[in-house]
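step: validate -> pass
step: tokenize input -> pass
step: predict -> running
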Amino acid sequence: LYYKDSRSFLHDRFFAEKNQGQGITLAKFSKRFHMSGSMFKMILDGERNLSIPKCHEIGSAFRMNFHEQEY
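step: predict -> pass
step: emit ->
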């Protein structure tokens, strides 16, 4: 699966985990990235953008390699 932007990827990852019935919330999910739930929601809604360092931090949290993070 290929994504055009990080926002689509994050949206799909969040809802995939939420639909697994693990009781995940925006606040719990965003804690992995040292981000508030409200900030994460603004990113998903397109009201805020991710910085490059934050994109790398999120990639590391998902155990992505360098090339996956650069994509």
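step: describe -> Residues 31 and 37 are 8 Å apart (CA to CA).
step: cleanup -> pass
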